[in-house]
Design goal:
The complex is a heterotrimer of chains A (105), B (493) and C (486). Chain A has 3 helices and 3 strands; from the N terminus they run ααβαββ. Chain A is α+β, with helices and mostly antiparallel strands and 105 residues long. Chain A has a domain of 46 residues. The two termini of chain A are 38 Å apart. In chain B, strands 1-3-2-4-6-5-10-11-9-7-8 form an 11-stranded mixed β-sheet, sandwiched between helices. Chain B folds into 2 domains: 327 residues, Amidase signature (AS) domain (Amidase signature (AS) enzymes, Alpha-Beta Complex), CATH 3.90.1300; 74 residues, no CATH class. Chain B contains 16 helices and 11 strands. In chain C, strand 12, helix 5 and strand 13 form a beta-alpha-beta unit. In chain C, helix 10 runs antiparallel to helix 11 and helix 16 packs across helix 18. With 486 residues, chain C is an alpha+beta fold. In chain C, 41% of the residues lie in helices and 18% in strands. The mean pLDDT of chain C is 90. Chain C has 3 domains: 303 residues, no CATH class; 106 residues, no CATH class; 59 residues. The chains are: A alpha+beta (105), B alpha/beta (493), C alpha+beta (486). At the A-C interface, helix 1, strand 1, helix 3 and strand 3 of A face strand 2, helix 3, strand 8 and strand 9 of C. Strand 1 of chain A pairs parallel with strand 2 of chain C.
């Protein structure tokens, strides 16, 4: 596996960077494995890159629907207690989370 | 290798259950059979077979009994016209049910009970359907074998050493094993049709927007559609008819009027059918054979059948494995340990997020989140995501060009019959390729139906896929029914 | 360092430099409900009571766009002279606990409004690059330390604000001073209130300003490196933060150091900006089209229906209308009138025949003290009052008292004047009165006759006192003048 590393489209450094964006963490050997798996997948689909798409518009929606709007009228909100019941941690009727900024070193 | 044995249909050998849902509903409405009795058949079959098959994550004994009693009561009181009165139904576990756990077969949602019902659930209840339980699936619908479930794989009822397909493997298996007559699943790249094919049942992926997605836990929002499973085309069509309604809560909902305007009155003798020829070379012999046989039957009815090479479809899978993971990476960001679901503590929010997600998601889900995050990230967006979106246009254009010539297209649903458990799970790419024939439809937003057609390798069922342009469900159903009636290996029990 | 920058005079520190500012103003829209769900858009409710599957980002939920929010956004666009365009929504992806989906739905490369400008009272124009729709986040309460995020040991999140509709108005980097920045935000605030898009309450966070500040040597065409100062929630913070930041940057450049592009926080207590730890260290938002929302393509008739009355509501229009009627020289008073919303009272009164200068003065000096009550004055009654004063039926003092009464009662000014005994004195008794005052103040009268004009005011005051304000000042002056020449 290690000798394949530089052939990988997505190197281990990239894996670590992407994992940070996605809020995931991988052990060293997992990162190596993911790097190789993702590279294999992307290489297999590489043919896509050679398709001439110059005159094609990118498609975000398959159906041609526009202007779907709702009237500005209030509907029932959820019962707070029901919502907070499935929260991992609650205090003062709010969702409790640990400190947002990291401790200064 | 072991071989398949056809499992019994719902109610077979258990009292006077007719073979179609519409007949059963009539009996219920007339009071000739009670919803409670039907439910009893369902629960009994589940008790007998599901220990081994594992198609349910949760069976709702008490709630279902209560619901069945309510239906019986309203019928006794003077009639109830619900189109699914007293019919037990299984719900894929990524569709929200109020107060009833909805896990997506993931550790991260293992204990989550939504405070609301999906729009399709509200609809099914109002039509008198009895929700029997929540079915197993690939975690967050990511997979083609139901093996990535946190709760362990579902087995194929025909041969318990094989996969049922996926990701809606639990729903397909529950119908195939006769535990329920109907089930709903979701299809993002083939997740209804492929397991339907592998389990020998009917599955429909409706036109994007025909069925409300409100309450369906999103995998890839621009591709996901909820659709029906049943053991015959009529039952699947009936369930689709219930599921197709306009929903103000889903901005992409199309509304029934557009569905009903579909071309229902085409005369089969003037039908033009295209076989997607570039799909055939890598199909197993039996799958290829099913297409050839179906073509012959259609031709006998006077249809004009041609082979058509739509080479653009070959790029669909690459585009799909960029677009679907990209959307998924964003859709699954919310599982961060703050508001619901699993939390693994950390010193600060970021550490808590990372620990929660790293422990809560399985390998395949993490792989796709990584792939999608990468495809959207700065420097790669144009090469991957944008290019994939353009390929999507290419695929849709190619389909529409074909539909200028043909009323519908024909292909195998899956390249092979059900494969052995564990045979692909370590090789993600080979797993991805099992959706080769189903993915293009999702990219285009078109409907497709998988209907059992013949028995293939190792006596396992083979599925045939009929594809049509947007909102052509009525036509697809009509032709599928014709093929079902002329299936060389018709179910006879 | 902060102290040095504060003490050094503005001119010293910034000599040779030009300030360049671009502002991003987030405006909470005045809708009944949130942007994508029917939960109430209400400031100050009990925490987590206005939440539903959609704005809480529960799995399976889907957004549906609020029509009123779109219409208010179009009004804002029209008011800022923007093109109103077909638009779409994107997802801006980053993790933050007050953002329920861990992405924000916002408009990205296709905003609903673009290419506009804002004209300030001094007639300068600031470009508006775009004004797009997006959703607000929830609010965090920081526990531990001083309650500031950096020192907190934990935070509590309330999602009532999550999903509240916002329009983000992005100016071009065309603002050249803190005063101009203030004028821009003030003017923008009037516009947002006038169009009904916002309540304009900066203290409640209805308007939140981020400032992009840079400096460059005078005459330079290139922009310097900018810093973004987040969440300035008062006009005072805005001007002080810009000035502090500009001086800090100029100081760095003068010392041969480089300005680092970063997000900074302004502290009102220390009156200084400081580097903020970034929310997402690597800012890669991975924007992509929101698949759950369809494109927004407003047709011409809808745009027309919603925006046709906007021009007439704009402060610039109102100022123009008034100054063409009253005169350019009253620019400052006119701006003030428009600001407090009493311009129409003056405009309509003058059109109905009231003396322009008198009407302007009475409104600015008296009515403006209670603008809310004044805005309810009947134009006809006000015109009658001004006419009574200009035809000498009421003295200035009486007129002011009657106007005060009119603010609290709906009676006609003539009735009020009568009730207060403000019927004008006849010439004879007034003349008697003046004579009496002269009798009683012979010394002063002598000085006046000797040419000391300053005494006139004293005599006038005495007459006013003895008539209990019923005398008309102008007439008193005339009588005194006649008596002098006799």
């Amino acid at each position: 596996m290690p000798e394949d590393l530089d052939k990988n489209l997505i190197g281990k450094d990239e894996v670590i960077k992407v994992a940070k964006l996605a809020r995931l963490s991988f052990e060293d050997d997992e990162a190596t494995k993911i790097s190789s798996e993702l590279s294999t997948i992307l290489k297999h689909f590489e043919a896509m890159q050679s398709v001439n798409t110059e005159n094609l518009a990118p498609m975000a929606h398959s159906m041609d629907v526009t202007n779907v709007l709702r009237e500005d009228e209030a509907t029932m909100s959820l019962e707070r207690d029901e919502v907070l019941l499935s929260a991992p941690a609650v205090s003062e009727n709010r969702f409790l989370v640990p400190r947002i900024l990291k401790e200064e070193e | 290798m072991s071989s398949g044995i056809r499992p019994p249909r719902f109610g077979a050998g258990k009292g006077q259950i007719p073979s179609t849902v519409s007949e059963l509903v009539k009996l219920v409405q007339k009071g000739e059979i009670k919803a409670q009795e039907i439910l009893e058949v369902s629960l009994q079959t589940i008790a007998e077979s599901d220990g081994e098959i594992n198609s349910f994550n949760l069976v709702l004994h008490e709630q279902a009994l209560e619901d069945a009693k309510k239906v019986d009561a309203s019928i006794a009181k003077g009639g109830f016209s619900g189109r699914l009165a007293g019919i037990p139904i299984a719900i894929k576990d990524n569709i929200c049910t109020r107060g009833i756990s909805t896990t997506c077969s993931s550790k991260i949602l293992a204990n989550w009970k939504p405070p609301y019902d999906a729009s399709v659930i509200t609809k099914l209840k109002s039509e008198g359907a009895i929700i029997v339980g929540k079915t197993n699936m690939d975690e967050f619908a990511m997979g083609s074998s139901t093996e990535t479930s946190f709760f362990g794989p579902t087995k194929n009822p025909w041969d318990k050493e094989r996969v049922p397909g996926g990701s809606s493997g639990g729903s397909a298996a529950a119908v195939a094993a006769g535990m329920v007559p109907l089930a709903i699943g979701s299809d993002t790249g083939g997740s209804i049709r492929q397991p339907a094919s592998l389990c020998g049942v009917v599955g429909i992926k409706p036109t994007y927007g025909l069925v409300s997605r409100y309450g369906l836990v999103a995998f890839a929002s621009s591709l996901d559609q909820i659709g029906p499973f049943a053991s015959c085309v009529d039952d699947a069509a009936l369930l689709l008819d219930v599921l197709a309604f306009h929903d103000e809560k889903d901005s992409t909902s199309l509304g029934r009027d557009r569905y009903q305007s579909g071309n229902v009155n085409i005369d089969v003798s003037s039908l033009k059918v295209g076989i997607i020829s570039n799909f055939l070379p890598n199909a197993a012999e039996s799958c290829h054979q099913a297409v050839t046989d179906a073509a012959r039957v259609l031709a006998n009815f006077g249809a004009k059948v041609d082979e058509v090479d739509i080479k653009e479809l070959d790029y669909a899978i690459a585009a799909y494995y960029i677009i679907a993971p990209a959307e998924a990476s964003s859709n699954l960001a919310r599982f961060d340990g703050v508001r619901y679901g699993l939390r693994v503590d950390g010193a600060d929010v970021e550490e808590m997020n990372i620990k929660t997600r790293t422990e809560g998601f399985g390998v395949e889900v993490k792989r796709r989140i990584m792939l999608g995050t990468y495809a959207l990230s700065a420097g790669y967006y144009d090469a991957y995501y944008l290019q994939a979106q353009k390929i999507r246009t290419l695929v849709k254009d190619a389909f529409n060009k074909a539909y200028g010539k043909y009323d519908l297209l024909l292909s195998p649903t899956s390249p092979t019959v059900a494969f052995p458990l564990g045979s692909k799970v370590a090789d993600p790419l080979s797993m991805y390729l099992s959706d080769l024939y189903t993915i293009p439809t999702n990219l285009a937003g078109h409907p497709a139906i998988s209907v059992p057609y013949g028995i293939g390798e190792d006596d396992m069922p083979v599925g045939l896929q009929l594809l049509g342009p947007a909102l052509s469900e009525s036509l697809l159903i009509k032709v599928a029914k014709m093929l079902e009636e002329n299936n060389t290996d018709k179910q006879d029990n | 360092m902060a102290q040095d920058l504060l003490n050094s005079s503005k001119d010293d520190a910034l000599t040779g430099f030009e300030i360049v500012v671009g502002l991003e103003v987030h405006c909470e829209l005045l809708t009944q409900t949130k942007l994508f769900c029917g939960c109430r858009n209400n400031f100050g409710d009990e925490p987590n009571t206005n939440i539903c599957p959609v704005c809480l980002g529960l799995p399976g939920s889907l957004p549906v766009l609020n029509k009123r929010a779109v219409e208010l956004a179009m009004k804002i666009g029209k008011a800022l002279n923007c093109e109103i365009l077909p638009s779409s929504f994107h997802r801006k992806n980053y993790f933050y606990p007050d953002m329920p989906k861990d992405f924000q739905i916002s408009q990205y490369d296709q905003p609903i409004n673009a290419n506009g400008y804002l004209e300030l009272p001094d007639k300068s124009k600031v470009g508006v690059v775009r004004a797009h729709i997006e959703e607000d986040t929830g609010k965090s309460l920081h526990i531990g330390g001083s309650g500031r995020i950096a020192e907190a040991s934990k935070s509590l999140v309330d999602y009532n604000r999550a999903g509240v509709p916002l329009v983000e108005i992005v100016s071009a980097p065309e603002i050249r001073s803190s005063e101009q920045a203030k004028a821009y935000v003030q003017e923008l605030r009037y516009i947002l209130v006038a169009t009904g898009a916002s309540d304009g309450r900066m203290e409640e966070g209805s308007l939140r300003v981020d400032a992009n500040v840079s400096v460059r040597p005078v005459g330079s065409k290139e922009f310097g490196t900018r810093c973004e100062i987040k969440n300035l929630n008062s006009l005072r913070s805005l001007t002080q933060a810009i000035e502090y930041e500009a001086r800090r940057q100029a100081g760095l450049i003068r010392d041969g150091k480089k300005v680092t592009q970063e997000t900074r926080h302004y502290n009102e207590v220390t009156n200084a900006t400081s580097s903020m730890r970034s929310k997402e260290e690597a800012n890669d938002y991975r924007y992509f089209p929101e698949p759950d929302l369809v494109p927004l393509v407003p047709d011409a008739s809808w745009i027309e229906e919603i925006t046709s009355d906007i021009q007439s509501l704009l402060p610039a229009t109102k100022r123009r209308n008034l100054s063409s009627l009253i005169g350019e020289e009253y620019q400052d008073q006119i701006s003030l009138l428009v600001e407090i919303g009493l311009d129409e009272l003056v405009l309509d009164s003058v059109k109905a025949g009231a003396d322009a200068k008198l009407a302007l003065n009475r409104v600015i000096n008296e009515a403006a003290r209670e603008p809310e009550k004044a805005s309810r004055l009947a134009v006809k009654d006000f015109v009658d009052l001004i006419n009574m004063e200009s035809s000498n039926k009421l003295s200035a003092t009486q007129s002011k008292v009657v106007l005060q009464e009119m603010l609290t009662s709906s009676d006609h000014p003539a009735e009020i004047a009568k009730r207060l005994g403000f019927e004008q004195m006849d010439q004879d008794s007034l003349q008697d009165n003046v004579r009496g005052v002269i009798e009683a103040n012979q010394a002063e009268w002598g000085r006046y006759l000797a040419g000391d004009e300053k005494v006139l005011q004293f005599l006038l005051g005495q007459v006013m006192r003895s008539t209990k304000g019923r005398a008309n000042g102008k007439e008193v002056m005339e009588i005194i003048g006649r008596l002098k020449s006799n």
